[in-house]
Amino acid sequence: MKPTSRAFKANARHALGDPNLQRAMVNLRTGFAERRAHAVAQLPEWEELREQAVAIKKDTLAHLDFYLEAFERNVIANDGQVHWCRDAAEANETVLAICRRLGAKTVTKGKSMIGEEMGVNDYLEANGITPVETDLGEYIIQIRHEPPSHIIAPAVHLVKEQIAQSFRETHRDLDATRPLNDSRQMCDEARAVLRPRFLAADVGITGANFLVAETGSSIIVTNEGNGDLTQTLPKAHIVLASLEKVVPTLEDAATILRLLARSATGQEFSSYTTVSTGPRRRDDADGPGEYHVVLLDNGRSALLGGEFEDMLRCIRCAACLNHCPVYRAIGGQSYGWVYPGPMGSVLTPSLIGIEQAGNLPNASTFCGQCESVCPMKIPLPKMMRHWRECEFQRHLPPPAYRLGLAVWGFFARRPALYRRIADVGARVLGYVGGGRGRFRALPVATGWTRTRDMPSPEGRSFMSLWAERQAQRKSR
Amino acid sequence: MNGSRDPILNSIRRSLKRGPLAPEAAAACESRLATHRRNLIPARARTLPLRGQLELFIKMAETVNATVARVKQANDAPAAIADYLSRLNLPSRLVRAPDPVLDALPWGERPLLETRRGVAEDSDPVGVTACFAAIAETGTLMLHSSAAGPTRNNFLPDTHIVVLRASQVVAAYEDGWDRLRAARRRDGGFAMPRTVNFITGPSRTADIEQKIELGAHGPRRLHIVLIDDGEAA
Amino acid sequence: MTEKPRVALFVTCLVDLFRPTVGFAAVKLLEDAGCAVEVPRLQSCCGQPAYNSGDRKSAQAIARTVIAAFAGFDYVVAPSGSCAGMIKVHYPALFADDRASADQARELADRTYELISFLVDVMKVERVTARYDGVATYHDSCSGLRELGVKSQPRQLLASVAGLTLKEMRDCEVCCGFGGTFAIKYGDISDKIVEEKTGNIRASGADTLLAGDMGCLLNMAGKLERAGDRTKVRHVAEVLAGVAAPALGEPGNGE
User: Fold this and answer.
1) A122-148 burial, b if ≥16 CB within 10 A, otherwise e?
2) Single pTM value for the model
3) Is the residue at C1 inside a domain?
4) Which chain B residues touch A72 with a CB distance below 8 Å?
5) A184/B173 Cβ within 8 A
6) Is A97 inside any structural domain?
């Protein structure tokens, strides 16, 4: 997917002025966030499970080479194949080669962020193969030619009127006068439209929430059942997974699965959690004839052992998105690439470079809510701050900003000098603001005063008043 | 398999500032895989006696919009299914998975109930399957692929009916895995099925304005016929 | 006779420049609680703007002046969750590469507190004698809440203020959108977030907004005032100490 992260500020401005988006984003707070709080309250062992999940992932990452090799061994033992791919280009070529060999014309897809990273849909289309997104949210944005705005709910930025319009424009062979007023009608229509696509697909591509080294299995978590129809009906099942998805055992997967749905949607467990191992067995009544795991690096191995290693623990639950006041204000597409919100602000610069994605880790108040709801206890603000340090060292922030900071820093580290300037400054600001109580405009801070007043200072610094008071007390 | 395998493994090791794992460290990882130790399991189901687990399973399943009908013996199942379909005005025809558990049931008892045995097709409105286990912790059914269990039978029909015995109910997912391992032992390990499905309620989506709708692509209805025959696990 | 604890007040730059009333309220509360309060003159800023902008070196330089100025006191108390959090939580991490400074930072961190949590958790203050006639709602500033666990303490003391009714607003724990330089650099996003917050303030039915951090207060007051809203905005310390200065943004400030 081609990044537009450079245009973050313009993207955000556009999003803030979009009434449909603003209306749609209200649903996030009352939906996922409230349900998550309820689910967590029902599980007394929540904190301990988080600790154990972190320990599982830390151990896995410290021995990632071992567990990936064990995973591969077990995939092969069950007649599957593993394709190690360094980057998106290699992964796309691998997927295409499999599809070509099987003479695939259409391919159904379950939701996959790795697929977005790869841009696999565009790649397949350019090579004459039709990809059909089957997750309802992904299908909606596919027919609208938009990128997803949320990891779990790709169409969360849309209101139902927009979706209905897209359905009418795309499903042209249906009765134009049919009602499409509510989600029930649209859901039924999508089901009817996509069912034949499932049945006709030659190849099914899914992502993977986890890879299990013990058994050579991939795990997907869905609510719709689209991932299951995608992987069961066609001739081949291709799994797109990045390196860090692996966990050691089925028990380890069970532990982290207890955190996943609760963090993502507030469900105790998703409707469908499916563990897939190899192609159909000789006696099986159905199932795909081939099983391929595309194991993608694309920058992950470089993150190990570094400042951003903890980001590799992310299980893509999107809790951080759901609780982030910035994400809720501007929606996911503003971030300009595959991964939005706090986790996207840390991961995106790692994968596409800080020059392109520089705004992302800066557009945060460091409120810390993301870290507190993260099931994997990822220190997101700390890593965003680290990106800011990288930018500062490379002189990436705008010169005016650097100057302002430098001036402030110059005085702040010289308290005696600061004192004199501050005492004068407080008087000046008080005089200018004098009497009215607030500033309606402040040239240095138009970002603030365009939409807010600035309350005016009391007109003397505390320290000068305190000095006076102490002097008066002494003279008594 | 291909040229990037070693470069990726080398990149991992370079980042971790080491070469391949030393024998002791590798042995520790091997052991971790072989012993597959359980982590913390929530007390919710674990501390309950069997009957309590059964009641919890039913409660949790109903919370996620599955319906549960209890019968006293296996032979009552076809009648219970026929009653369920007629009560909801659903078509009286079903496809049943080619499973010995289902084969043994008296389907002929209700002449108006049409049953077909085999792999589900898109035109089948109702599918009946057996299952491997049921997880009390979250009201979850555990099914797997086999000659007797076509995976598509769990997903294609609008209504999915699962025949479950009380003795198949376990407390947690880990108990389900242990039962599967025991049932499928094979030289040193066990034979994983192609597909293991954990099913918790019917298909659903909230992709349109966060409003939950049942029956996205999978079944709209999940009905569990629970044979509560008092037998031990 | 037990000696009074020697408490150094970390004024914070925003209180120093914008609202000395808060500083005097803090001193009163600390003295009423039985502390001997001093205000080291050579203090400026905790260094958070530099730290959060990625300028680690400046942050370290500023932190060293703070460590020096506040050496030797029993406690260091700030009427701000974000400044106290900077010292208590971030100073030790700031010197990860300098063992000696890290030790000094940790030593300082161990005796640094946000004002209200210091009063309740350390000095065991259970009530105040102030009076305030009004309905107040309390905004939980992020650093105080998530870095320092300040939640129940302000509410406990506010419950003892005669005449005051506390009404919780929806999403009282959600960020107000200030975030230091964020409010200037990403002003339009910050504005949207504070708009949500002021909507919740209005919906609470309170006539007074309280919080423990000047940055948040300036932000929320500025938004309320631009909208023509008459909600009175004060630092919680002012109400607990019973000071009578004009509220934030009201005429009478700056004279």
Assistant:
1) ebbeeeebebbbbbbbbbbbbbbeebb
2) 0.96
3) no
4) 1
5) no
6) yes
